[in-house]
């Protein structure tokens, strides 16, 4: 997701920052206890032979996401995007799904904190007032544990908006080193008429990324693709990372090729690390708008919603153990059916 950044933000509130946040909760149950708490009919119990469920956010209880697990971005962050990330005010759980809601809030005349009439660069160039707002949330991972992981199977079931102007994503960033030397994994991005699956690592200079990217066009996805939920799956093993959308293999990346190039300079780049074999990653869910890749927002409905049914992570039995365990006991089917362009109860945050 972090294809280019506002470098003035990198030291503080960008995902490329070395600040990772803390873990305020999480169970210390053993692997055996984690599995025995799942009833026999639970679809997650034996989903993958030799793997155990270590993280499951099912988003089945209305309200706000759990603040001990998730933190949020606020502000204009990267990629010359149009939206102001509005902390937790554009995210809510309703009718069995996490809703990340983007809205055209220009009528509210909220001052753009980065506006300077003498400065024509982004985000001052967006004007004196904030136009679109949206949500971006990530797990509270740490370099040594918390809600961060090294290897495993990530599985997210989501309904991604296909409107021009929208740029939904499921991704992760490393919890050590400055971006991109800690690695970035884009499990899913949708923009430009198709889905993308990418990884990034250090290419030698500061903020200089090497990429392995793949693209599946709309013509392969078919009409009505955005009317349904899809399962986005990452299989992350020491030898490779593979991305799937349902039964479509999007990309398969050999990890022998993802070693950071030698780097010099006054930034935290490690020493020729392979981030996908050595650095824990957290999980991001966000809906970006416009910017470098999203396209024009002229005909984008407001509000527009990115719906996530669940986010689950499995790891091989007997491995890792450093991550905080979190497994929602309730598994539900999504029932949210408010169309884009229609408000929820007339409230700006869905409540």
SSE layout and pairings?
Blueprint: H1 31-36, E1 51-57, E2 70-72, E3 74-75, E4 84-86, E5 91-94, E6 97-104, E7 132-134, E8 136-139, E9 141-142, E10 145-146, E11 152-159, E12 166-173, E13 184-190, E14 194-202, E15 209-217, H2 218-221, E16 230-236, E17 240-245, E18 248-254, H3 275-278, E19 284-289, H4 291-294, E20 304-316, E21 326-327
Oligomeric status of the shown chains? single chain
- The helix/strand order is HEEEEEEEEEEEEEEEHEEEHEHEE
The largest pleated sheet is described as: 12 strands, mixed
Provide the β-strand percentage band.
25-35%
Q: What is the straight-line distance between the termini?
A: 29 Å
Structural account:
- The chain has 351 residues and is mainly β.
- The chain has one domain: Jelly Rolls, CATH 2.60.120.
- It is 5% helix and 34% strand.
- It is built from four helices and 21 strands.
- Strands 1, 3, 4, 5, 6, 7, 11, 16, 17, 18, 20 and 21 form a twelve-stranded mixed β-sheet that branches. A seven-stranded antiparallel β-sheet has the order 2-8-19-12-13-14-15. A two-stranded antiparallel sheet has the order 9-10.
- Strand 17 and strand 18 (248-254) form a beta hairpin.
- The longest helix has 6 residues, at 31-36.
- The two termini are 29 Å apart.
- Residues 4-34 have low confidence and may be disordered.
């Amino acid at each position: 997701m972090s294809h280019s950044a506002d470098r003035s933000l990198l030291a503080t509130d960008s995902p490329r920052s070395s600040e990772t946040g803390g873990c305020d909760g999480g169970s210390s149950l053993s692997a055996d206890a984690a599995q025995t708490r799942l009833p026999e009919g639970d679809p997650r119990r034996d989903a993958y032979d030799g793997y155990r469920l270590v993280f499951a956010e099912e988003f089945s209880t209305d309200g706000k996401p759990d603040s001990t697990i998730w933190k949020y971005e606020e502000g204009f962050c990267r990629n010359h995007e149009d939206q102001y990330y509005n902390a937790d005010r554009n995210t809510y759980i309703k009718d069995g799904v996490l809703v990340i809601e983007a809205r055209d809030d220009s009528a509210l005349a909220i001052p753009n904190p980065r506006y300077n009439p003498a400065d024509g660069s982004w985000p001052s160039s967006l004007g004196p007032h904030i136009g679109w707002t949206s949500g971006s949330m990530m797990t509270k991972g740490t370099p040594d544990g918390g809600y961060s992981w090294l290897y495993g199977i990530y599985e997210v079931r989501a309904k991604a908006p296909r409107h021009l102007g929208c740029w939904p994503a499921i991704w992760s960033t490393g919890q050590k080193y400055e971006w991109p030397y800690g690695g970035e994994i884009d499990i899913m991005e949708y923009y430009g008429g198709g889905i993308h699956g990418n990884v990034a690592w250090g290419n030698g200079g500061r903020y200089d990324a090497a990429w392995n990217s793949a693209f599946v066009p709309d013509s392969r996805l078919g009409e009505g693709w955005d009317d349904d939920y899809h399962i986005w799956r990452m299989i992350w093993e020491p030898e490779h990372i593979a991305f799937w959308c349902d039964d479509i293999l999007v990309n398969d990346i050999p990890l022998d090729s993802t070693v950071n190039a030698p780097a010099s300079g006054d930034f935290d780049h490690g020493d020729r690390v392979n981030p996908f074999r050595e650095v824990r990653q957290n999980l991001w869910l966000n809906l970006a708008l416009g910017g470098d890749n999203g396209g024009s927002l002229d005909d984008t409905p407001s509000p527009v919603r990115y719906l996530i049914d669940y986010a689950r992570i499995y790891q091989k039995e007997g491995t890792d153990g450093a991550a905080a365990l979190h497994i929602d006991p309730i598994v539900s089917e999504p029932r949210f059916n408010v169309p884009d362009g229609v408000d929820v109860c007339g409230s700006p945050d869905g409540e």
